Amino acid sequence: MQIHNLKRLHKNKKDRIVGRGGKHAKTSGRGGKGQTARAGNKRRPELRDIIKKLPKNRGYRFNSRKKALVLKREKLAKKGESYKEIRQRLGLKGKKIIVK
Hints:
100 residues, alpha+beta, two-stranded parallel sheet, 6% strand
């Protein structure tokens, strides 16, 4: 019997093929060395740092909440009624009123 005539009972287990991209094996795309491979790796996204440096806009409200109440002149109680009186009569609190 010679070496080229020998055969195994079980076929060889295929080795991992590295560097072909996709979903083959661990770090097939050859990534994961350097800073990302070290313990305690916590790199912050740059955009977060930029956002943190911006000042806060306090009291910001969405434009959808700022819809004005449109009143017709016929619905006023008296001709020279002030906005304060209209708010008290209708029970409005801090809403913009437009009289047309």
